[in-house]
Write a structure and sequence with these properties.
The model has no long low-confidence stretch (mean pLDDT 90). The protein is built from 31 helices and twelve strands. It has an eight-stranded parallel β-sheet with strand order 1-2-3-5-7-8-9-10. A two-stranded parallel sheet has the order 4-6. It is of the alpha/beta class and 571 residues long. InterPro entries: ARM-like (IPR011989), ARM-type_fold (IPR016024), Armadillo (IPR000225), LRR_dom_sf (IPR032675). It comes from Aegilops tauschii. This is Protein ARABIDILLO 1.
Length: 571
């Protein structure tokens, strides 16, 4: 058993207690970042009783860490030097002052702290080097008290602390007389402040996280910098997820550079968290996948694309997934997409799309979806084998995996809009794959993209036989007719568009009518008088396409009145 244990999903008190009982030699226990609401103070106490060699304890989202639990850590874990209790409901701040071995303490995100008690208690810790109070309501007086009274403290990290920032805005020199102690806030020049830790050294400000600068220095400095990387990666991610108002200046002036420095960290979890934060902070609207142009281009200008692509190439699937997600989100911006393609991103995404790990494949498919928006990238995706990789994804994952299937179908839909690429989609088995989704999948996002892809495949001229190929695929026309009855407007619109394009083929017109297409489209036309213009246009277009056939004319006699209503509404 390793002396270190890190877990993302160990969320019950019983699991923690069993883990502690089985591994008495445990030195490092990190569980998170998901909230541990079912973990009790009793479980923390059990860890203390069983793991006397514990040096590092990082937990997230506990409802309460009471004095008994912290007291047990103080009594039974004499080597404990690093405690992080993130986003917890209540923490007994006074009891933390009894862990005399403590060097590093983080209670970032905790909002029920008695700061007068905390600062008085922690200032007496004989070995305390650094404290992280980011994302809390810590008072300026508490910060000042720690600065004044602690004899060993070197660093206070206070990112996104409202009252501290207000104090600095009112009095910029509020913490300048800090007796050599650094106070890091989002309004201070963080890189410049950290460079002061290396007196007499020619350390570039943006190189402060480079481990080469820590060698042959005080051992505690290297330990502190590793700790700082970890706490910064935690808080920057939480800040990005909340996206509080007024953070643009921070992200553009130093936050982006800080994240890219963390991507280069020697700590794997810090690398991955930094990539996750980049993926998060560039998206300003999850519903529409709207990406902030200034933030995404800041990542590009600071050399972030090669860094993230390198991370995506590594052997760890967790890093591959987070890096691919970041690159995919950044690629929504056309300027960044060009750099991604120029730096070899298409080949990397194609390789990752072949992964047996669903999350990696899903993010890679998303990257190809975003890159395939640009006409200039479609041929390159086809040349790299991206089309076959996307088709294979659809067959590899079951119908319930909506994320990977929607992204694969969406990418194929974009590629199918190109005449040459559409032939490659058909050649790779794309028609069968997309029809399979249209027939068997129940997820609206997947169905919309599958129908859109089939519509684009059928949209090309006489030199492209995909129109006929789609119509001849078993169950294709019946599935599209059924999709016009969907409760989702996007699905109905794309299905009607596909039927419209398919109706340009004589055999398809007959088969669509035989599958109940006239009745379904008339019904759709009746229902969509108040719907979007796109849906109305496609419904009308499909009906007119079917009406060209002599054998279908009788079916339209009944529908004449409804069609007149639709046409009148459009005019």
């Amino acid at each position: 058993m390793s002396d270190n244990y890190s877990c993302h999903d160990c969320s019950t008190a019983v699991a923690i207690s069993v883990l502690a009982a089985r591994h008495e030699a445990l030195e490092s226990l990190q569980i998170g970042p998901d909230p541990l609401e079912r973990i009790s103070s009793d479980a923390v106490r059990h860890v203390a009783l069983c793991c006397s060699r514990l040096r590092r304890l990082h937990l997230s989202g506990l409802r309460e860490v009471d004095s008994d639990a912290i007291g047990a850590l103080a009594r039974y874990c004499p080597l404990l030097e690093d405690v992080a209790l993130l986003d917890c409901g209540t923490v007994d701040e006074a009891a933390l002052g009894d862990i005399h071995s403590l060097r590093f303490l983080s209670i970032a995100g905790c909002y029920n702290v008695k700061w007068a008690t905390a600062s008085a208690s922690w200032a007496q810790l004989p070995l305390l080097v650094a404290v992280d109070v980011s994302r809390t309501d810590v008072s300026p007086n508490a910060v000042a008290r720690l600065i004044s009274h602690s004899k060993t403290l070197e660093l206070i990290c206070a990112l996104n602390c409202k009252f501290v920032e207000e104090e600095q805005a009112h009095s910029p020199t509020a913490f300048s007389n800090s007796k050599g102690k650094l106070v890091l806030t989002i309004t201070c020049p963080i890189f410049k402040s950290l460079a002061s830790l290396f007196p007499g050294e020619a350390v570039e400000e943006h190189g402060v996280f480079n481990e080469c600068n820590w060698r042959n220095k005080r051992k505690i400095l290297g330990v502190m910098m590793n700790w700082l990387e970890w706490v910064l990666s935690q808080s920057l991610l939480r800040i990005a997820e909340c996206n509080p108002y007024g953070m643009d200046d921070f992200w553009l002036q130093q936050g982006t550079s800080m994240l890219l420095s963390l991507v280069k960290s020697s700590q794997e979890d810090v690398q991955e968290r930094a990539a996750t934060t980049i993926a998060t902070f560039v998206v300003i609207d999850d519903e529409t996948a709207n990406v902030d142009a200034a933030r995404s281009e800041a990542v590009m200008r600071d050399g972030g694309i090669p860094l993230l692509l390198d991370l995506a190439r590594c052997s760890r699937v967790s890093a591959q997934s987070e890096a691919a997600k970041a690159i995919a989100n950044l690629s929504v911006n056309a300027k960044v997409a060009k750099v991604v393609a120029d730096e070899g991103g298409i080949a990397i995404f194609t390789n990752l799309a072949k992964s047996t790990n669903r999350l990696v494949a899903e993010e890679a498919a998303g990257g190809l979806w975003n890159l395939s928006v640009g006409e200039e990238h479609k041929a390159a995706i086809a040349a790299a084998g991206g089309i076959k990789a996307l088709v294979d994804l659809i067959f590899r994952w079951p119908a319930g995996t909506d994320g990977v299937l929607e992204r694969a179908a969406g990418a194929l839909a974009n590629l199918a809009a190109d005449d040459k690429c559409s032939l490659e989609v058909a050649k790779a088995g794309g028609v069968h794959a997309l029809v399979t989704l249209a027939r068997s999948c129940k997820l609206e996002g997947v169905l919309e993209q599958a129908a859109r892809a089939l519509a684009n495949l059928a949209a090309h001229g006489d030199n492209n036989n995909n129109n006929a190929a789609v119509g001849q695929e078993a169950g294709a026309l019946e599935a599209l007719v059924q999709l016009t009855c969907s409760q989702n407007e996007g699905v109905r619109q794309e299905a009607a568009g596909a039927l419209w394009n398919l109706s340009f083929d004589d055999r398809n017109r007959e088969a669509i009518a035989a599958a109940g297409g006239v009745e379904a489209l008339v019904s759709l036309a009746q229902q969509c008088l108040n719907a979007s213009e796109g849906l109305q246009e496609r419904a009308a277009g499909a009906l007119w396409g079917l009406s060209v056939s002599e054998s279908n004319r009788s079916a339209f006699v009944i529908a004449a009145y409804e069609m007149d209503m639709l046409i009148g509404n459009k005019s």
